[in-house]
Amino acid sequence: MADQAAALLLDRVRGGEWALGAKLPGENTLAGQLGVGRSTVREAIRQLAGRGVLISRQGSGVFVAALDAAEDRAEVMRRASIVAVIEARVAIEAEAAALAAERRTPAQMREIRRALAARAVAVHDAAAHVDADLAFHRAVVVAAGNPVLTDLYDLSTPRMREAMIDMLAMVGRFGSDADHAAHSDLADAVADRRGHDAARASRDHLTALKEALS
User: Fold this and answer.
1) d(CA 170, CA 24)
2) Where is the HTH gntR-type domain (predicted)?
3) Are 85 and 77 in contact (CB under 8 A)?
4) Is residue 30 located within the same domain as residue 7?
């Protein structure tokens, strides 16, 4: 019953019955409208609060916090086209590279260099090369010091890994000198605290990858 009541309330929010920030009617009113008890209404509200749609304010009531329930982010990423995922990575990684150039610690810089070296030698197996590549880029993102950016990067990893392995297996070659030089330029820009250059190196690399995968 609570699941059904939550679905009905969500439909009403989606339908525009309540605007963003609007206060919902009291539990008694909602219970009458939905044909359920107050405890069921409370549970339905709790469910929608957990999904970010409603928010309960002690002593004030229940308010609309979002006009729809967000889908599971991992599922959204799995269904997205590879072009959409790379475009999202451009936004994430270009900003992360600029921040990494500003904030990276000596220890983080050592990790970036270590990951770059590991990537350079992982040239005999497509899956190993992709894993090393993703580890390098993650080291740069982590150095940005923003856990939200790291979380968003991690969400894209399974989809990116799948597409990149397929592409490299089809092409049959990877780990060229030019490709390694592009990644070295990114590492150098972060090391030298050149934020603009780091962002540009990240953006250029991902744009080339998008063109290769699209």
Assistant:
1) 55
2) 1-67
3) yes
4) yes
Distance CA 161, CA 42 (A): 42
Q: How many angstroms separate the CA atoms of 100 and 62, rounded?
A: 41
Please report, for the domain that includes residue 101, its CATH number: 1.20.120.530
Taking phi first (over 0 means left), then psi (-120 to 50 degrees means alpha), and beta for anything else, what does residue 110 get? alpha
pLDDT in tens, 56-99: 988 899 999 998 887 667 777 888 898 999 999 999 999 999 99
What do you get for the CA distance between the two ends of the chain, in Å? 46
Please answer whether residues 150 and 138 qualify as being in contact, where contact means their C-beta atoms are separated by less than 8 angstroms.
yes
Distance CA 27, CA 41 (A): 6
> Model confidence over 128-156: pLDDT tens digits?
999 999 999 999 999 999 999 999 999 89
The domain in which residue 148 lies consists of 73-213
Q: Domain count of the chain? A: 2
Domain match, 203 and 140 both: yes
> CA angle, 212 as apex, 124 and 166 as ends, to 5°?
50
> Based on the domain organization, do 132 and 38 belong to the same domain?
no
Token couple for 77: 């990423």
Contact 167, 212 (CB under 8 A): yes
Q: pTM higher than 0.85 for the full model?
A: no
Regarding whether 50 and 83 lie in a shared domain, the answer is no
Is 209 found in the same domain as 117? yes
